[in-house]
Model the fold of this input.
Amino acid sequence: KAGVTQTPRYLIKTRGQQVTLSCSPISGHRSVSWYQQTPGQGLQFLFEYFSETQRNKGNFPGRFSGRQFSNSRSEMNVSTLELGDSALYLCASSLASPDTGELFFGEGSRLTVL
Amino acid sequence: EDQVTQSPEALRLQEGESSSLNCSYTVSGLRGLFWYRQDPGKGPEFLFTLYSAGEEKEKERLKATLTKKESFLHITAPKPEDSATYLCAVHTTDSWGKLQFGAGTQVVVTP
Done:
């Protein structure tokens, strides 16, 4: 059974650019969540999608956005990149709800902003 | 404001030396508390879900327990392959779909 796939795994951008990260959940999983992980702040919730609807959003500026497609695949976008956006961005999927806590995480996309 | 605090930040154990990790939480309403394991360069891997005080879950050398204010992850007779960062997270009644994670405890088990 294929796991959660995130692309790209590594990327380097400069300040002011924008970036799009992609996540393919486990087949049959309809909920996709995104988290940002940094050494200083740990894992911070970005947003959660279910059936193409955003059900919750974390405390991040509007530069961070996401969407989910009808096949449950999800993308997140960060516009006008800042140095502080350098982080590991993790996508997680679950069958229907993160309520059980059983999220399946991908290996992440490591973003470096120069 | 909801808070999740893990201690210690780091733990170094000899193989076979049992120990416990602590996760204390202050939340408005707990829906569930979860433990994850994260290896370097990987995403977190789900271990346990606990829903109510008094509940216990076990998996191999790991045992998780829950009280009204904290959770413990007991590692019994650890092996080097148990080396990882252990994360706890909470899901609260007023924040659907969001897990709030603690900072983690980095465990190193030496032979």
The CA atoms of residues 15 and 79 of chain B lie 5 Å apart. The mean pLDDT of chain B is 95.
